[in-house]
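User: Hey, my collaborator sent me this sequence without any context and asked if I could get a structure. I don't really work with proteins. Can you help?
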Amino acid sequence: QVQLVESGGGLVQAGGSLRLSCAASGSIFSIDYMGWYRQVPGKERESVAVIRSGGSTNYADSVKGRFTISRDNAKITVYLQMNSLKPEDTAVYYCTVRTLGVPYWGQGTQVAVSS
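Assistant: No problem. I've predicted the 3D structure and written it out in structure-token form, which is a compact way to encode the shape of the chain:
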């Protein structure tokens, strides 16, 4: 089993910044990718940013230039630096890690951006 513990969510004013962290532990032998998704009530969960084992990254168009995903391999931790936050970034953010083809999810952390 793999456990993911997220932290860093909260309430921030538009234009502000937050940094999310997600620490993975458990039976992790080979990581395919680590990433962040987000979900608002009534909508499907959407991909925000992903970082693959080779270091390549992908971002949703809506966050390009504002969000940066990074990782610490020694700590098996993935980060999401969110700058220039907008009210439309308000959502529950979920960390995901896929190892040996199996995806695991964190419990989610709330990000709220006030206008």
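In plain terms: Residues 20 and 30 are 23 Å apart (CA to CA). You can pass these tokens on to your collaborator as they are.
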